[in-house]
Each structure stands twice: as C-alpha cells, then as structure tokens.
Amino acid sequence: MSNIVNTIGVVSGVFTIITFFKDGIFGGPPDPAGATVRIKAGVPELLNEGDSLGGSIDKIYAFGTDNKYLGQSDGCDIGTGGLCTRTVDQTSPGKHSRYISVSNNADATCISWISVLQHDGLNNGAWSGDIGYGCGQAWYNSIERAGEKSDGSAYIPKCTWLDADYTNGIANAALKFDVFAYSNLVGDTINSNAACASTIFDSTTGPIPGIPGGRIANRPLWMTEQLIISNFTSQTADQLCNSAKSWGPDFIGPDGKFCDMSSKTLAPLCAMEDIDGCVEMDEGEGTLKKRMNVARRSTSAVHKSYKKIDKWGQ
Questions:
Q1: Contact yes or no for 33/163 (Cβ under 8 A)
Q2: pLDDT confidence band for 214 (50 / 70 / 90)
Q3: Domain extents for the chain?
Q4: 100 with 37: CB under 8 angstroms?
Q5: Is 240 helix (H, G, I), strand (E, B) or coil?
Q6: What DSSP string runs through 68-120?
Q7: What pTM did the predictor assign?
C-alpha cells in the first residue's frame, strides 16, 4: 500500500492538487473490519500554557457510495498536534466508505487533516483543513508539514475548527466529506469548482444525512423570479455560490459578481470585468444580459428575467 495520496489544498488563495506523503498518514495496514480514519489536530507556532488546537472528537460515521449508513466509531480526546485514529465498525465490511462524517464535542478541535484508509487499501483519501479555510469556516494557522506542492515545496495546511457549543465564532460541530472527491476524483473536483461542494458542515453533532455535492433542491417560483442585490461587504456572491448548503434567489454581491443559484455558477459584472460571459443588469426592464462574442462581434442576450429586485444595504 502506498502512503501517497492526492487531495486538495489552498495555495496563494486558489484550490489546487496537493500530494500528501507524510509517513504514517494512514496509520498502518488496512483493517478488514472497515475504514480507518485518522484525525490530525493543528500545531500552533508557539505552544503557551493553555494554548491548544486539540479537543475532543465525539463520533465518526461512514456511508457507502449510495450514502447508506455503514457504521460508526467512538471518538477520542486529541491533543495539540495529536492524532485520533479509529476504525469504523461497518455492518458491511466489504464496502468502501464514500462519505465520512466527523462530529466534535463541546471542546473545540482545530482539524489539520483527516485521512481515510479503506478496508482493502484502495480509494484512500484525505481531507485538509485548507478546505474549511477556503470555504469560509473558522480556521487557524498551523506549522506542521503534511505533504508537498506541485513545485516540490512544503505544504502546510491550515486547520478548521469544530465545536459543539459554538463558542468563539465557531458555527459548526460536524463535517461530512466525499472521500473520492479528495482522492481518485480530485482532478474532476478541481476542474468543476467543487472543492467546497464536496464537504458539508453542520451545527448538530449527529451523523449528517445529506450528500456533499448533491443537487440542490428545486427552488420555488418566488425564488426564480427574484434577484437580490447586496451592498453588505460581508455578503459576497462568491461565498454564496461556493457553499453546498446555500439556497435562495439569484444574487449580486458587493464583490462585483453574479451568482446563478439554479446552477451555482458565478459570472462577473461587465462593469467590473469586461470579458466574454460577463453580465449586465437592466433594472428598468428587470433583465440580466450576458455578453458573448459571436462571429468576432460582441453582443448581449437576455440571460435572466425577474419580477422583483430587492436591494440590501442601499
């Protein structure tokens, strides 16, 4: 079995493929009883008395490729820079764990990475704390090298906080991620901008039932006929579109971008970025036009029509 696995990290603010190679990342040989999950807590630069990125993991849950529950394991206390290693007691040991859900107790843990070793050593995967950082979760810096970037330099992931009592601005107690999206399908995940959609965060401590990257429920008519234009600096279209759990009307944010909530795709406003595919809002007509180059000529065509436009913070 190789101890090398590709996953996703953030380099210079961009999601990219990272190679994990650190000895012991998987925690030993495969266990035929089920997937072995290792959770690594972050390491701060200065370890002062009372300064800890470790905490207490509550439970680890595994789901198959059809998102059916396979089993669970108890958690463990995990100190700063420490490891929590558990094998999920699966009711069907021969199945791969496609989705792993991790819940925390009321003792905050900053997770640097989570590795998953399948029962047969195939389709192993790893989740990095950079994903939480890049997807708007509470995070902190860490100093431990976990792999390497494409240029061969050290990769040091940030860590993502989980906490069941939601103190200090930590909003979530659990996460669930698609193991394959961060391993054998990592290229597809990057190319389809699905790095954030392949992880779900939740405020409850039980197993998260949903599927990361699954289709958003169909929107009711009132949502499809409404557009929100926000001037609040904290409400970016980029953040909304990159969230697996966001759901609502189409949105234009103060970052100069439009989010089509039906497909979770972003487009720049032409006033901000005059390129092919940018959009222009005609508030009088209630239409959103998309600029396209056809036969070497630039033209605009109606892309969306709205019956109601709400402006926030103006």
A1: no
A2: low
A3: 5-202, 221-312
A4: yes
A5: helix
A6: -EEEEEE--EE-TT-EEEEE-EESSTTS---EEEEEE-SS-EEEEEEEEE-TT
A7: 0.68
User: How many whole angstroms separate alpha carbon 233 and alpha carbon 2?
Assistant: 45
Distance CA 22, CA 182 (A): 17
d(CA 150, CA 143): 19
14-61 pLDDT, tens digit each: 999 999 865 668 878 899 999 999 999 988 765 444 457 889 999 999
Between strands 226-230 and 250-252, the pairing is parallel
- Token pair for 151: 């240029």
Of the candidates 134, 147, 139, 84, the residue with the CA atom closest to the CA atom of residue 110: 139
Close Cβ partners of 285 (under 8 Å, ≥ 6 residues apart): none
Give per-residue pLDDT as tens, 50-95: 457 889 999 999 999 988 899 999 999 998 889 999 999 888 888 9
AA identity, residue 124? N
Tokens in use for 108? 């905050």
d(CA 252, CA 109): 35
Q: Which of helix, strand or coil describes residue 188? A: helix
